[in-house]
Design a protein that fits this description.
Layout: H1 2-10, H2 14-27, H3 29-38, E1 47-50, H4 56-62, E2 69-73, H5 76-85, H6 87-91, E3 97-99, E4 112-118, H7 127-137, E5 138-148, H8 157-163, H9 172-182, E6 186-192, E7 197-203
Parallel strand pairs: 1-2, 1-4, 2-3, 4-5
Antiparallel strand pairs: 5-7, 6-7
Helix pairs in contact: 7-9
Amino acid sequence: MVTEKITQCMKPHGEEGFETIENMNENHKEISEYAFECIKVGENDSILDIGCGGGVNIEKFLKLTSGNVDGLDYSEVSVISSIKQNQNAINNKRCHIIQADVSSMPIDDESYDLVTAFETIYFWPDIKETFKEVFRIIKPGGQFMIAQGTDGNHPDDELWLATVEGMNLYTARELEKYLLDAGFKNAKSNVKKDDYILVVIAQK
């Protein structure tokens, strides 16, 4: 049971996957709230949430912009959950949920003003190259926001690395470097120190 739970973190699947997503929606609230404090959303911004999980952040962004807010996830369970969470916006053609891998997204160049990644880059393959793929789909002057529950100094980091399948952790400095190497003009880190929450925002 424990092994299955840990596997679910990387790619929710099966009936247990839906339970995992519900738990993530609850457990990631504080991270999401801090991230929304750090980012400025334009009233007409088009947004993509990568690793959209249960779709709760898509729902939040839909209230901040009149533009489209889409989601992408490679988990079928996550796609189903995000569609259910945002069915009205999907019916109104303001939201599309895509099942795909972040390392090769079926998305045109320069499609979005803002791309976000909440609690997901831990599991991205070849993160340096994947950041280049994210860079490709962002409009000039657009932003990429990463939000995660550790700044690389959390007391439980070693435990997570040892028990969660496929997990990698990054410090703010590492992420800033990878983002600049991918082509972004700048990258700024915000840390909620008492909770170790890290939000990095890069601009194209």
